[in-house]
Design goal:
The complex is a heterodimer of chains A (249) and B (259). Chain A contains ten helices and no strands. With 249 residues, chain A is mainly alpha-helical. Chain B is of the alpha/beta class and 259 residues long. Helices cover 34% and strands 23% of the residues of chain B. Classes of the chains: A mainly alpha (249), B alpha/beta (259).
Chain lengths: 249, 259
Protein backbone atom coordinates (compact mmCIF):
# COMPACT_ATOMS: atom_id res chain seq x y z
CA UNK A 1 0.00 0.00 0.00
CA UNK A 2 2.73 2.38 1.08
CA UNK A 3 4.78 1.25 -1.88
CA UNK A 4 2.09 2.04 -4.43
CA UNK A 5 1.58 5.42 -2.75
CA UNK A 6 5.29 6.18 -3.13
CA UNK A 7 5.07 5.04 -6.72
CA UNK A 8 2.13 7.33 -7.45
CA UNK A 9 3.63 10.32 -5.64
CA UNK A 10 6.93 10.03 -7.50
CA UNK A 11 5.25 9.79 -10.92
CA UNK A 12 2.80 12.63 -10.30
CA UNK A 13 5.55 14.76 -8.76
CA UNK A 14 7.75 14.18 -11.78
CA UNK A 15 4.97 15.05 -14.25
CA UNK A 16 4.04 18.16 -12.28
CA UNK A 17 7.65 19.35 -12.19
CA UNK A 18 7.87 18.73 -15.92
CA UNK A 19 4.66 20.63 -16.65
CA UNK A 20 5.83 23.59 -14.55
CA UNK A 21 9.14 23.58 -16.41
CA UNK A 22 7.23 23.52 -19.70
CA UNK A 23 4.87 26.33 -18.66
CA UNK A 24 7.74 28.49 -17.44
CA UNK A 25 9.26 28.41 -20.96
CA UNK A 26 12.72 28.07 -19.43
CA UNK A 27 13.44 25.31 -21.91
CA UNK A 28 12.70 25.60 -25.62
CA UNK A 29 9.22 24.01 -25.99
CA UNK A 30 10.38 22.32 -29.20
CA UNK A 31 12.99 20.41 -27.24
CA UNK A 32 10.79 19.81 -24.23
CA UNK A 33 7.13 19.37 -25.07
CA UNK A 34 4.45 19.27 -22.41
CA UNK A 35 3.98 15.92 -20.64
CA UNK A 36 0.39 16.06 -21.89
CA UNK A 37 1.60 15.97 -25.50
CA UNK A 38 3.98 13.10 -24.71
CA UNK A 39 1.26 11.08 -23.00
CA UNK A 40 -1.01 11.74 -25.98
CA UNK A 41 1.73 10.53 -28.31
CA UNK A 42 2.22 7.46 -26.13
CA UNK A 43 -1.50 6.64 -26.16
CA UNK A 44 -1.73 7.29 -29.90
CA UNK A 45 1.34 5.18 -30.59
CA UNK A 46 -0.05 2.23 -28.69
CA UNK A 47 -3.61 2.59 -30.01
CA UNK A 48 -2.77 2.87 -33.71
CA UNK A 49 -0.23 0.09 -33.20
CA UNK A 50 2.70 2.13 -34.50
CA UNK A 51 4.74 2.40 -31.32
CA UNK A 52 3.34 -0.88 -30.08
CA UNK A 53 4.80 -2.73 -33.06
CA UNK A 54 8.23 -1.26 -32.45
CA UNK A 55 7.90 -1.98 -28.75
CA UNK A 56 7.06 -5.63 -29.35
CA UNK A 57 9.87 -6.02 -31.87
CA UNK A 58 12.37 -4.71 -29.31
CA UNK A 59 10.91 -7.01 -26.64
CA UNK A 60 11.23 -9.94 -29.01
CA UNK A 61 14.85 -9.18 -29.92
CA UNK A 62 15.79 -8.66 -26.29
CA UNK A 63 14.18 -11.88 -25.14
CA UNK A 64 15.65 -13.94 -27.98
CA UNK A 65 19.12 -12.53 -27.29
CA UNK A 66 18.72 -13.13 -23.60
CA UNK A 67 17.52 -16.72 -24.06
CA UNK A 68 20.32 -17.52 -26.48
CA UNK A 69 22.83 -15.97 -24.09
CA UNK A 70 21.47 -18.03 -21.20
CA UNK A 71 21.49 -21.28 -23.16
CA UNK A 72 25.08 -20.67 -24.22
CA UNK A 73 26.49 -19.12 -21.06
CA UNK A 74 25.05 -21.25 -18.26
CA UNK A 75 26.61 -24.59 -19.28
CA UNK A 76 29.93 -22.94 -20.14
CA UNK A 77 29.86 -21.03 -16.86
CA UNK A 78 29.19 -24.21 -14.89
CA UNK A 79 32.05 -25.92 -16.74
CA UNK A 80 34.51 -23.06 -16.17
CA UNK A 81 33.47 -22.59 -12.56
CA UNK A 82 33.62 -26.26 -11.65
CA UNK A 83 37.39 -26.26 -11.88
CA UNK A 84 39.49 -23.54 -10.38
CA UNK A 85 42.33 -24.35 -12.77
CA UNK A 86 40.14 -23.97 -15.86
CA UNK A 87 38.70 -20.73 -14.52
CA UNK A 88 42.11 -19.28 -13.84
CA UNK A 89 43.14 -20.10 -17.43
CA UNK A 90 40.15 -18.28 -18.95
CA UNK A 91 39.59 -15.59 -16.33
CA UNK A 92 41.56 -12.95 -18.21
CA UNK A 93 39.70 -13.58 -21.47
CA UNK A 94 36.28 -13.38 -19.82
CA UNK A 95 37.26 -10.21 -17.99
CA UNK A 96 38.71 -8.66 -21.10
CA UNK A 97 35.68 -9.26 -23.31
CA UNK A 98 33.33 -8.35 -20.51
CA UNK A 99 35.10 -5.00 -20.31
CA UNK A 100 35.03 -4.45 -24.06
CA UNK A 101 32.00 -2.30 -24.98
CA UNK A 102 29.75 -4.52 -27.07
CA UNK A 103 28.99 -1.52 -29.29
CA UNK A 104 32.66 -1.54 -30.34
CA UNK A 105 31.94 -4.92 -31.92
CA UNK A 106 29.10 -3.71 -34.17
CA UNK A 107 31.29 -3.29 -37.27
CA UNK A 108 32.80 -6.73 -36.77
CA UNK A 109 29.41 -8.38 -36.36
CA UNK A 110 28.11 -6.44 -39.38
CA UNK A 111 30.86 -7.94 -41.48
CA UNK A 112 30.10 -11.42 -40.19
CA UNK A 113 26.30 -11.38 -40.08
CA UNK A 114 25.34 -8.61 -42.53
CA UNK A 115 22.91 -5.81 -41.79
CA UNK A 116 19.89 -7.93 -40.98
CA UNK A 117 18.23 -9.17 -37.85
CA UNK A 118 21.06 -11.57 -37.04
CA UNK A 119 23.61 -8.90 -36.25
CA UNK A 120 21.48 -7.17 -33.63
CA UNK A 121 20.69 -10.42 -31.91
CA UNK A 122 24.25 -11.68 -32.16
CA UNK A 123 25.79 -8.59 -30.55
CA UNK A 124 23.16 -8.48 -27.80
CA UNK A 125 23.60 -12.20 -27.18
CA UNK A 126 27.35 -11.75 -26.98
CA UNK A 127 27.12 -8.94 -24.43
CA UNK A 128 24.52 -10.67 -22.30
CA UNK A 129 26.28 -14.04 -22.46
CA UNK A 130 29.50 -12.66 -21.02
CA UNK A 131 27.71 -11.12 -18.05
CA UNK A 132 25.85 -14.37 -17.41
CA UNK A 133 28.91 -16.55 -17.96
CA UNK A 134 31.00 -14.57 -15.51
CA UNK A 135 28.37 -14.72 -12.79
CA UNK A 136 27.58 -18.41 -13.25
CA UNK A 137 31.26 -19.36 -13.15
CA UNK A 138 31.74 -17.20 -10.09
CA UNK A 139 28.67 -18.69 -8.39
CA UNK A 140 29.75 -22.25 -9.09
CA UNK A 141 33.28 -21.58 -7.98
CA UNK A 142 32.20 -20.04 -4.71
CA UNK A 143 29.62 -22.68 -3.92
CA UNK A 144 30.03 -23.61 -0.30
CA UNK A 145 32.38 -26.56 -0.19
CA UNK A 146 30.73 -27.86 2.95
CA UNK A 147 27.43 -28.66 1.22
CA UNK A 148 29.27 -30.52 -1.50
CA UNK A 149 31.10 -32.50 1.17
CA UNK A 150 27.84 -33.15 2.98
CA UNK A 151 26.40 -34.64 -0.21
CA UNK A 152 29.59 -36.59 -0.82
CA UNK A 153 29.54 -38.31 2.58
CA UNK A 154 25.90 -39.22 1.90
CA UNK A 155 27.22 -41.19 -1.03
CA UNK A 156 26.04 -38.79 -3.75
CA UNK A 157 27.81 -39.49 -7.08
CA UNK A 158 29.68 -36.48 -8.58
CA UNK A 159 26.95 -35.78 -11.14
CA UNK A 160 24.36 -35.51 -8.34
CA UNK A 161 26.64 -33.24 -6.33
CA UNK A 162 26.89 -30.97 -9.37
CA UNK A 163 23.17 -31.10 -10.14
CA UNK A 164 21.67 -31.10 -6.63
CA UNK A 165 24.18 -28.98 -4.77
CA UNK A 166 26.66 -26.95 -6.81
CA UNK A 167 24.14 -25.88 -9.43
CA UNK A 168 21.57 -24.76 -6.88
CA UNK A 169 24.25 -23.19 -4.77
CA UNK A 170 25.20 -21.04 -7.77
CA UNK A 171 21.61 -20.00 -8.51
CA UNK A 172 21.53 -16.71 -6.57
CA UNK A 173 24.67 -15.54 -8.38
CA UNK A 174 23.40 -16.95 -11.68
CA UNK A 175 20.24 -14.89 -11.31
CA UNK A 176 22.27 -11.75 -10.70
CA UNK A 177 24.04 -12.54 -13.96
CA UNK A 178 20.79 -13.17 -15.81
CA UNK A 179 19.29 -9.96 -14.52
CA UNK A 180 22.25 -7.90 -15.66
CA UNK A 181 22.33 -9.97 -18.88
CA UNK A 182 18.80 -8.98 -19.84
CA UNK A 183 19.52 -5.30 -19.15
CA UNK A 184 22.64 -5.46 -21.29
CA UNK A 185 20.68 -7.21 -24.06
CA UNK A 186 18.10 -4.42 -24.03
CA UNK A 187 20.73 -1.68 -24.14
CA UNK A 188 22.52 -3.31 -27.07
CA UNK A 189 19.31 -4.04 -28.96
CA UNK A 190 18.22 -0.40 -28.68
CA UNK A 191 21.60 0.92 -29.83
CA UNK A 192 21.74 -1.61 -32.65
CA UNK A 193 18.26 -0.55 -33.78
CA UNK A 194 19.46 3.05 -33.92
CA UNK A 195 22.62 2.58 -35.86
CA UNK A 196 22.82 -0.66 -37.73
CA UNK A 197 20.43 -0.53 -40.59
CA UNK A 198 17.19 -1.11 -38.80
CA UNK A 199 13.72 -0.28 -40.04
CA UNK A 200 11.89 -1.02 -36.80
CA UNK A 201 12.24 -1.32 -33.04
CA UNK A 202 12.20 1.28 -30.29
CA UNK A 203 15.75 2.42 -31.00
CA UNK A 204 14.89 3.15 -34.60
CA UNK A 205 11.68 4.87 -33.50
CA UNK A 206 13.60 7.16 -31.16
CA UNK A 207 16.19 8.15 -33.73
CA UNK A 208 13.64 8.64 -36.53
CA UNK A 209 11.42 10.88 -34.38
CA UNK A 210 14.48 12.87 -33.48
CA UNK A 211 15.41 13.34 -37.15
CA UNK A 212 11.98 14.73 -38.02
CA UNK A 213 11.86 16.68 -34.79
CA UNK A 214 8.73 14.93 -33.58
CA UNK A 215 9.68 15.42 -29.98
CA UNK A 216 6.50 14.10 -28.30
CA UNK A 217 6.88 10.86 -30.24
CA UNK A 218 10.56 10.63 -29.36
CA UNK A 219 9.85 11.08 -25.65
CA UNK A 220 7.04 8.54 -25.91
CA UNK A 221 9.43 5.98 -27.39
CA UNK A 222 12.05 6.75 -24.73
CA UNK A 223 9.48 6.16 -21.99
CA UNK A 224 8.37 2.96 -23.66
CA UNK A 225 12.01 1.78 -23.59
CA UNK A 226 12.39 2.82 -19.96
CA UNK A 227 9.22 1.04 -18.96
CA UNK A 228 10.39 -2.07 -20.77
CA UNK A 229 13.71 -2.05 -18.92
CA UNK A 230 12.00 -1.46 -15.62
CA UNK A 231 9.54 -4.31 -16.02
CA UNK A 232 12.09 -6.80 -17.30
CA UNK A 233 14.06 -6.14 -14.13
CA UNK A 234 10.96 -6.32 -11.97
CA UNK A 235 9.84 -9.63 -13.46
CA UNK A 236 13.27 -11.04 -12.75
CA UNK A 237 13.22 -9.86 -9.17
CA UNK A 238 9.84 -11.50 -8.66
CA UNK A 239 10.99 -14.80 -10.17
CA UNK A 240 14.11 -14.62 -8.06
CA UNK A 241 12.17 -14.03 -4.88
CA UNK A 242 9.87 -16.96 -5.58
CA UNK A 243 12.32 -19.60 -6.80
CA UNK A 244 15.64 -18.55 -5.29
CA UNK A 245 14.06 -17.95 -1.91
CA UNK A 246 17.17 -18.97 0.00
CA UNK A 247 19.41 -16.36 -1.69
CA UNK A 248 21.32 -14.28 0.82
CA UNK A 249 20.08 -16.36 3.74
CA UNK B 1 23.43 -52.74 32.08
CA UNK B 2 26.40 -54.54 33.57
CA UNK B 3 29.21 -52.48 32.15
CA UNK B 4 31.99 -54.58 33.63
CA UNK B 5 31.21 -57.41 31.25
CA UNK B 6 31.45 -55.27 28.13
CA UNK B 7 34.13 -56.64 25.88
CA UNK B 8 35.67 -54.41 23.25
CA UNK B 9 34.35 -55.64 20.00
CA UNK B 10 36.50 -53.93 17.39
CA UNK B 11 34.66 -52.14 14.61
CA UNK B 12 37.11 -49.71 13.05
CA UNK B 13 40.78 -50.45 12.58
CA UNK B 14 43.27 -47.75 11.67
CA UNK B 15 46.66 -49.01 10.58
CA UNK B 16 49.88 -47.11 9.81
CA UNK B 17 47.99 -43.97 8.94
CA UNK B 18 50.15 -41.14 7.59
CA UNK B 19 49.13 -37.68 6.54
CA UNK B 20 51.25 -34.74 5.41
CA UNK B 21 49.75 -31.35 5.14
CA UNK B 22 51.71 -28.49 3.61
CA UNK B 23 55.01 -30.24 4.33
CA UNK B 24 54.04 -30.91 7.95
CA UNK B 25 53.75 -34.47 9.19
CA UNK B 26 50.30 -34.46 10.81
CA UNK B 27 49.94 -38.19 11.29
CA UNK B 28 52.71 -40.71 11.10
CA UNK B 29 52.22 -44.44 11.64
CA UNK B 30 49.00 -43.85 13.58
CA UNK B 31 47.22 -46.99 14.79
CA UNK B 32 43.92 -47.36 16.59
CA UNK B 33 41.15 -49.88 17.20
CA UNK B 34 37.70 -48.46 17.78
CA UNK B 35 35.07 -50.67 19.42
CA UNK B 36 31.64 -51.28 17.93
CA UNK B 37 28.53 -49.61 19.27
CA UNK B 38 30.29 -47.11 21.49
CA UNK B 39 30.53 -43.36 21.61
CA UNK B 40 34.14 -42.29 21.31
CA UNK B 41 34.90 -38.70 22.18
CA UNK B 42 38.04 -37.25 20.65
CA UNK B 43 39.82 -34.56 22.58
CA UNK B 44 43.22 -32.97 22.22
CA UNK B 45 45.27 -29.80 21.85
CA UNK B 46 44.44 -27.28 19.15
CA UNK B 47 45.63 -28.28 15.73
CA UNK B 48 46.37 -31.85 16.75
CA UNK B 49 44.16 -33.15 13.98
CA UNK B 50 41.00 -34.22 15.82
CA UNK B 51 38.81 -33.20 12.92
CA UNK B 52 41.37 -34.34 10.38
CA UNK B 53 41.22 -37.81 11.91
CA UNK B 54 37.47 -38.18 11.47
CA UNK B 55 37.65 -36.47 8.09
CA UNK B 56 40.13 -39.07 6.89
CA UNK B 57 37.95 -41.84 8.29
CA UNK B 58 34.87 -40.45 6.56
CA UNK B 59 36.61 -39.78 3.25
CA UNK B 60 36.30 -36.01 3.41
CA UNK B 61 40.08 -35.68 3.47
CA UNK B 62 42.50 -38.12 1.92
CA UNK B 63 45.63 -39.50 3.55
CA UNK B 64 49.06 -40.37 2.26
CA UNK B 65 49.32 -43.96 3.37
CA UNK B 66 47.80 -46.48 5.70
CA UNK B 67 44.47 -48.22 5.91
CA UNK B 68 41.14 -47.61 7.61
CA UNK B 69 38.66 -50.48 7.69
CA UNK B 70 35.14 -50.72 9.11
CA UNK B 71 34.50 -54.27 10.26
CA UNK B 72 36.95 -55.36 7.57
CA UNK B 73 35.18 -53.30 4.89
CA UNK B 74 36.45 -50.22 3.12
CA UNK B 75 34.71 -46.87 3.38
CA UNK B 76 33.04 -47.41 -0.02
CA UNK B 77 31.14 -50.38 1.38
CA UNK B 78 30.23 -48.65 4.62
CA UNK B 79 27.24 -46.44 5.32
CA UNK B 80 28.27 -43.42 7.31
CA UNK B 81 26.67 -40.30 8.66
CA UNK B 82 28.50 -37.04 9.25
CA UNK B 83 27.38 -34.01 11.22
CA UNK B 84 29.29 -30.80 10.58
CA UNK B 85 29.98 -28.10 13.11
CA UNK B 86 28.61 -25.43 10.81
CA UNK B 87 25.04 -26.61 10.33
CA UNK B 88 24.14 -23.40 8.53
CA UNK B 89 26.42 -24.31 5.65
CA UNK B 90 25.71 -28.03 5.80
CA UNK B 91 21.93 -28.22 5.42
CA UNK B 92 20.45 -27.52 1.99
CA UNK B 93 18.60 -24.20 2.15
CA UNK B 94 16.70 -24.84 -1.10
CA UNK B 95 15.02 -27.86 0.46
CA UNK B 96 12.55 -27.87 3.33
CA UNK B 97 13.55 -29.58 6.56
CA UNK B 98 11.60 -32.65 5.47
CA UNK B 99 13.18 -32.71 2.00
CA UNK B 100 16.58 -32.43 3.64
CA UNK B 101 15.80 -35.61 5.59
CA UNK B 102 14.73 -37.42 2.43
CA UNK B 103 17.77 -36.38 0.44
CA UNK B 104 20.32 -39.02 1.59
CA UNK B 105 17.73 -41.78 1.02
CA UNK B 106 17.91 -40.98 -2.67
CA UNK B 107 21.16 -42.93 -2.84
CA UNK B 108 19.82 -46.07 -1.18
CA UNK B 109 17.73 -48.66 -2.95
CA UNK B 110 14.49 -48.14 -1.07
CA UNK B 111 10.84 -47.92 -2.04
CA UNK B 112 8.90 -44.74 -1.34
CA UNK B 113 7.11 -46.33 1.59
CA UNK B 114 10.37 -47.56 3.11
CA UNK B 115 11.75 -44.05 2.83
CA UNK B 116 8.66 -42.60 4.44
CA UNK B 117 8.96 -45.08 7.28
CA UNK B 118 12.56 -44.12 7.93
CA UNK B 119 11.69 -40.45 8.01
CA UNK B 120 8.78 -41.04 10.37
CA UNK B 121 10.96 -43.12 12.63
CA UNK B 122 13.73 -40.57 12.95
CA UNK B 123 11.27 -37.71 13.38
CA UNK B 124 9.47 -39.48 16.20
CA UNK B 125 12.63 -40.53 18.01
CA UNK B 126 13.98 -37.00 17.74
CA UNK B 127 10.78 -35.60 19.17
CA UNK B 128 10.62 -32.81 16.59
CA UNK B 129 8.63 -29.81 17.74
CA UNK B 130 9.02 -27.57 14.71
CA UNK B 131 7.30 -27.50 11.32
CA UNK B 132 9.18 -29.83 9.00
CA UNK B 133 7.87 -27.94 5.99
CA UNK B 134 9.91 -24.90 6.99
CA UNK B 135 13.09 -24.02 5.18
CA UNK B 136 16.25 -24.27 7.28
CA UNK B 137 16.79 -20.50 7.32
CA UNK B 138 13.40 -20.11 8.99
CA UNK B 139 14.54 -22.29 11.90
CA UNK B 140 16.76 -21.69 14.91
CA UNK B 141 20.34 -22.89 15.10
CA UNK B 142 19.45 -25.82 17.32
CA UNK B 143 16.63 -26.85 14.99
CA UNK B 144 18.95 -26.68 11.99
CA UNK B 145 21.52 -28.80 13.75
CA UNK B 146 18.72 -31.25 14.66
CA UNK B 147 17.93 -31.58 10.95
CA UNK B 148 21.59 -32.08 10.27
CA UNK B 149 21.85 -34.87 12.86
CA UNK B 150 18.62 -36.53 11.71
CA UNK B 151 19.81 -36.34 8.12
CA UNK B 152 23.02 -38.10 9.13
CA UNK B 153 21.14 -40.80 11.04
CA UNK B 154 18.37 -41.45 8.55
CA UNK B 155 20.39 -43.88 6.48
CA UNK B 156 21.01 -46.00 9.60
CA UNK B 157 24.75 -45.43 9.39
CA UNK B 158 27.18 -48.02 10.63
CA UNK B 159 29.35 -45.19 11.88
CA UNK B 160 28.30 -41.69 12.87
CA UNK B 161 30.82 -38.84 12.85
CA UNK B 162 30.15 -35.61 14.67
CA UNK B 163 32.56 -32.71 14.30
CA UNK B 164 32.01 -30.35 17.23
CA UNK B 165 28.26 -30.50 16.70
CA UNK B 166 27.41 -28.22 19.64
CA UNK B 167 30.08 -25.59 19.36
CA UNK B 168 27.89 -23.16 17.40
CA UNK B 169 24.96 -23.60 19.82
CA UNK B 170 24.21 -21.85 23.09
CA UNK B 171 24.52 -23.75 26.37
CA UNK B 172 20.81 -24.45 26.77
CA UNK B 173 20.65 -25.89 23.27
CA UNK B 174 23.82 -27.89 23.89
CA UNK B 175 22.29 -29.56 26.94
CA UNK B 176 19.17 -30.39 24.94
CA UNK B 177 21.09 -31.76 21.96
CA UNK B 178 23.32 -33.81 24.25
CA UNK B 179 20.24 -35.52 25.64
CA UNK B 180 18.79 -36.06 22.17
CA UNK B 181 22.02 -37.61 21.00
CA UNK B 182 22.22 -39.88 24.00
CA UNK B 183 18.61 -40.98 23.54
CA UNK B 184 19.20 -41.79 19.88
CA UNK B 185 22.37 -43.64 20.78
CA UNK B 186 20.61 -45.80 23.35
CA UNK B 187 18.03 -46.70 20.69
CA UNK B 188 20.47 -47.38 17.89
CA UNK B 189 23.88 -48.25 19.40
CA UNK B 190 25.64 -46.77 16.38
CA UNK B 191 29.41 -46.55 16.60
CA UNK B 192 29.89 -42.83 17.09
CA UNK B 193 32.95 -40.60 16.86
CA UNK B 194 32.51 -37.22 18.45
CA UNK B 195 35.09 -34.48 18.15
CA UNK B 196 34.66 -32.03 20.97
CA UNK B 197 36.46 -29.03 22.32
CA UNK B 198 34.45 -29.18 25.51
CA UNK B 199 35.72 -31.75 27.98
CA UNK B 200 32.43 -31.91 29.85
CA UNK B 201 30.52 -32.81 26.67
CA UNK B 202 33.27 -35.17 25.64
CA UNK B 203 33.27 -37.22 28.85
CA UNK B 204 29.52 -36.97 29.49
CA UNK B 205 28.62 -38.60 26.20
CA UNK B 206 31.53 -40.98 25.89
CA UNK B 207 32.04 -44.64 26.51
CA UNK B 208 35.66 -44.00 25.70
CA UNK B 209 37.63 -40.78 25.56
CA UNK B 210 40.37 -40.67 22.96
CA UNK B 211 43.05 -38.18 23.92
CA UNK B 212 45.49 -37.15 21.22
CA UNK B 213 49.01 -35.76 21.41
CA UNK B 214 50.42 -32.76 19.62
CA UNK B 215 51.47 -33.41 16.04
CA UNK B 216 52.68 -35.73 14.73
CA UNK B 217 49.53 -37.03 16.34
CA UNK B 218 49.56 -40.18 18.42
CA UNK B 219 47.15 -41.63 20.95
CA UNK B 220 47.95 -40.08 24.32
CA UNK B 221 45.35 -42.17 26.13
CA UNK B 222 42.15 -44.06 25.40
CA UNK B 223 40.16 -43.91 28.64
CA UNK B 224 37.00 -45.78 29.55
CA UNK B 225 34.02 -44.09 31.08
CA UNK B 226 31.60 -46.81 32.04
CA UNK B 227 28.72 -44.98 33.71
CA UNK B 228 25.45 -46.60 32.64
CA UNK B 229 22.98 -44.84 30.34
CA UNK B 230 20.81 -42.93 30.33
CA UNK B 231 23.09 -40.53 32.06
CA UNK B 232 21.61 -37.44 33.58
CA UNK B 233 23.15 -34.19 34.73
CA UNK B 234 23.66 -35.91 38.09
CA UNK B 235 26.58 -37.88 36.70
CA UNK B 236 28.37 -34.59 36.11
CA UNK B 237 29.01 -34.40 39.84
CA UNK B 238 29.63 -38.12 40.34
CA UNK B 239 32.99 -39.33 41.51
CA UNK B 240 33.65 -41.44 38.46
CA UNK B 241 32.85 -38.63 36.05
CA UNK B 242 35.18 -36.31 37.94
CA UNK B 243 37.89 -38.94 37.94
CA UNK B 244 37.75 -39.47 34.17
CA UNK B 245 37.46 -35.77 33.49
CA UNK B 246 40.40 -34.91 35.75
CA UNK B 247 42.52 -37.65 34.27
CA UNK B 248 41.65 -36.45 30.74
CA UNK B 249 42.45 -32.89 31.71
CA UNK B 250 45.83 -33.87 33.15
CA UNK B 251 46.75 -35.79 30.02
CA UNK B 252 45.55 -32.88 27.90
CA UNK B 253 47.55 -30.34 29.93
CA UNK B 254 50.65 -32.50 29.75
CA UNK B 255 50.28 -32.37 25.94
CA UNK B 256 49.60 -28.66 25.82
CA UNK B 257 52.60 -27.86 28.02
CA UNK B 258 54.83 -30.28 26.18
CA UNK B 259 55.92 -27.80 23.52
Amino acid sequence: MKKSLNFLVSILGFLLFWEILFQSKLVDPVLLPSPVQVIQALIKGFSNGDLQTDFLITVRRTIISFLLATIIAVPIGVFFGSSEIIYQRVEFLIDFFRSTPASALFPLFLVIFGTGEKTKIAVATFGAALAILFNVAYGVMNARKLRQLAAKVMGAPPIYILKDVTFLESMPQTFIGMRSGISIALVIVIVAEMFIGSSNGLGQKIINSQMVFDMPEMYAAIFAAGTLGYFLNLIFLLIEKKYIHWGGK
Amino acid sequence: MDTSSVIDNTHITIRSLSKNFGGVQLFSDFNLDIPKGKIISIFGPNGCGKSTLINMMSGIQDFNSGQILFGGKTLQDTRIGYVFQNYREAVFPWLTALENLYYPLKFLKLTESEKKLKVEKIVSSFDVKFDLNSYPYQLSGGQQQSISIMRALIVDPEVLFLDEPFSALDYEMTLFMREQLQKIFIERQTTTLLVSHDLEDAVYLADKVLLLTRKPTQVAAFLNYLAPRPRTVDVLSSEEFMKVKTESLNIFLAQVNNV
